[in-house]
Amino acid sequence: MTAPTVDRRTGEVGAHRDLSEIPTPQEIGKMLIWLNRNLRESAAEIRRLDEAAARAKVAYVKTHARAFIDAQGSMDLRRRLAEVQSADALLAFELAEVELRGAKERIKTLYSQVESTRSLNALARAEAGLAGAFS
Fold first, then answer.
1. Model-level pTM greater than 0.90?
2. Residue 135 domain flag
């Protein structure tokens, strides 16, 4: 399992490595704080990317419509000319959607890491309880 970890020398959170030993409760707390901060930042990024994607879609629709209206010839020719003239706007829209999907996947990954870290916390508590029972 991989999760954000705490460098025991520096106390820094964020490095990802295989967890070969159970983190301390303090390390788990730092990991959860780091994950929550990243979730908030990612949510703000999603809002920004969602707006950018909406603006890119409107720009594409307007560019395509304007090109279709301004074109001359048969309907099929006008449609094809509009597609060619609005291709860059369509690409910008598609790329904005790709960025948005990537940010949404990051949120899902962060939620998964929160759940993994909560499981580690439960394991650390259980281990501490067992250690107390035998001392």
1. no
2. no
